[in-house]
Amino acid sequence: MIDSSESKRRFAGVYSALFTAYDDQGNVSPERIRRLVDFQLDRGLRGAFITGSTGEGLLLTDDERKQVAATAVAALKGRGLSIVHVGHTSTRAAVELARHAQSIGADMVSSVPPIYYPVGPDGVLLHYRQIAEGVELPVLVYNIPATTGVTFSDELWLKLFEIPNVVGMKYTAHYLFTMRNTIELLGERALVLSGSDEMFLPALVMGCDGSIGTTQNVAPEWFVRIHESFLTGDIETARRLQFEVNRFIKFWLGHGRMAAVKTAASARGVPVGGVRPPLPPGTPEDLAAVEQFAHGLFAKVP
Length: 302
What we know:
Layout lengths: L3 H8 L1 E5 L12 H13 L4 E4 L11 H15 L4 E5 L5 H13 L4 E4 L8 H15 L4 E5 L1 H4 L5 H7 L5 E6 L4 H10 L5 E4 L5 H6 L4 E4 L6 H12 L3 H20 L3 H7 L19 H15 L4
Parallel strand pairs: 1-2, 1-8, 2-3, 3-4, 4-5, 5-6, 6-7, 7-8
Helix pairs in contact: 2-3, 3-4, 4-5, 10-11, 11-13, 12-13
């Protein structure tokens, strides 16, 4: 049986929601993925969350997801922790991806709840139980209601945590009251990683154990310093850094979203290519503006 308190201690920290890097033809680029992982680990990240929303996991083929996971897990091995997202419209396919993640040496798997079909709480519980029973790894529930339309009730959380290897959640939402209530419901035994980059410091105040986010791909130092400053009681520094990174987040959200923040990686010397349709590629003007803004931010690395 997996010790949830040990998982909470082991997995606390700051992670990237790792970009899936493509070559200039739009194919998965293992070389660029390895370079991106090196860049992030060198700047203090705890590890990476692989093939999630930012990693465009649901836009990749299952074979591509396995390729990205194998590349990233190998690059992280012995240096950082790997959390492989296996969420899928098919629970059977999610279990297969989870077993693959275990076979390549991943440290944890995660999944969004079932999407598209409105299966209700029983279907959500079945989905996570089958994933958890298919592997011996800890399982992280990916709670992102804005994109899945799934809300977790207190009753569902308690049933989920009866599954021996369910150890926590990635909470990607702004309503931190709900996050805190879930922490108190589970008696602080749950690992909770915040998924809203712009809310990291408030989430720390409300009891999260770290973060997984998009912006951590290109500005990892800011998030590492926010975490360290909070833990040492230097709230003024943590707040200043959160405000700095939030200005960047506001800019890339307003100038092309995913295509924009992936473009910002070029400003740090780690190009990762574009995005997969139906994500829009962004206009040349927006992407150039984001790269220029990013250069200004990265000139003052904390």
